[in-house]
């Protein structure tokens, strides 16, 4: 018997090949060619398993997927999956906990450097024949000697702290759960209150999930409490930051710059005013997308499917919604 896996994100041919190569026997996979709703739903009627990265899986999609046993998130952020609908349908939901923490952490630091050194601007001007060496000295900074504040200290936040150790920066963090003393010492990270994190950080990097509590967390008030001249990095979720308030803060000069991999609307609206600012650096929600991590994430995802089929427990780190009676009967 072969189990059908429907992959809802549009992937490049080489990535499809890598995912298919990691697939165990007994599965076949079909990839989306379009993110449009009708094209997405067309992949669902025969699906035993669904993998989704950035594509949503809404309540009405469960009705179009009568055979599905598991919605497998490619990555960790499950805010676009309707968990209540999954529970009603008895469909399990799992993530690949920590699987892309390293690439996202590297991207966060890349954004810090790109914002501090205005890399997109000087690259663009260089290609236009403009040599901006003199101008850059007055607006560029180094990470060394700065206080980097991490809002969220889970896998990705800790990976950022680990990678920052060679930059001679001070690392502080705020999280609802304090890390153990051994971890804090190893990562040279100190816990602080949210107020201290905002007011004292030269670089604030966001690493919390998008929840009812974190949506709009970095609003105009929070931005005003940030240190003048600080930069803001977001590789978590767009809805955490009020983008209009951020634009105002950057345009006024309160914040020196910002680097975002995520936006409230994705794909980002080309008319988004943030994109008009030279002190803003953006990327298309690509922080976790590196080719040399595809095999690992794929094997984790297929491993969760195999565990479900074999009646074994999916890792507690990965399992978000346990399988219900409806799924067990499929």
UniProtKB/TrEMBL annotation:
Keywords: Oxidoreductase. It holds the Pfam family 2-Hacid_dh_C. Residues 109-287 form the D-isomer specific 2-hydroxyacid dehydrogenase NAD-binding domain. It comes from the Bacteria. The keyword Oxidoreductase applies. InterPro entries: D-isomer_2-hydroxyacid_DH, D-isomer_DH_CS, D-isomer_DH_NAD-bd, NAD(P)-bd_dom_sf. This is 2-hydroxyacid dehydrogenase.
């Amino acid at each position: 018997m072969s189990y059908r896996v429907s992959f809802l994100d549009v992937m490049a041919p080489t990535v499809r090949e890598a995912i298919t190569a990691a697939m165990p026997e007994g599965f076949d996979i079909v990839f989306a060619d379009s993110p449009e709703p009708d094209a997405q739903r067309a992949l669902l009627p025969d699906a035993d398993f669904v993998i989704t990265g950035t594509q949503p899986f809404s309540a009405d999609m469960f009705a179009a997927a009568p055979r599905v046993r598991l919605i497998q998130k490619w990555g960790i952020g499950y805010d676009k999956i309707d968990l209540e609908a999954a529970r009603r349908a008895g469909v399990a939901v799992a993530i690949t906990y920590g699987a892309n923490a390293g690439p996202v952490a590297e991207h966060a630091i890349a954004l810090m450097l790109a914002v501090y050194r205005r890399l997109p601007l000087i690259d663009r001007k260089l290609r236009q024949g403009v040599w901006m060496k003199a101008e850059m000295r007055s607006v560029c900074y180094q990470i060394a000697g700065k206080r980097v504040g991490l809002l969220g200290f889970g896998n990705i936040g800790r990976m950022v702290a680990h990678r920052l150790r060679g930059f001679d920066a001070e690392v502080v963090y705020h999280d609802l759960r304090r890390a153990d003393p051994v971890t804090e010492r190893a990562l040279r990270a100190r816990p602080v209150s949210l107020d201290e994190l905002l007011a004292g950080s030269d670089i604030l990097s966001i690493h919390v999930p998008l929840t009812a509590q974190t949506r709009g967390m970095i609003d105009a008030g929070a931005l005003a409490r940030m240190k003048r001249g600080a930069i803001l990095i977001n590789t978590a979720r767009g809805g955490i930051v009020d983008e209009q308030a951020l634009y105002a803060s950057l345009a006024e000069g309160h914040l020196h710059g910002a680097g975002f991999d995520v936006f409230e609307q994705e794909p980002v609206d080309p008319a988004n005013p943030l994109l008009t600012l030279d002190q803003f650096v953006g990327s298309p929600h690509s922080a976790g997308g590196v080719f040399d991590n595809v095999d690992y994430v794929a094997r984790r995802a297929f491993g969760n499917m195999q565990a479900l089929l074999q009646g074994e427990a999916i890792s507690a780190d990965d399992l978000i919604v346990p399988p219900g009676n409806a799924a067990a009967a499929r």
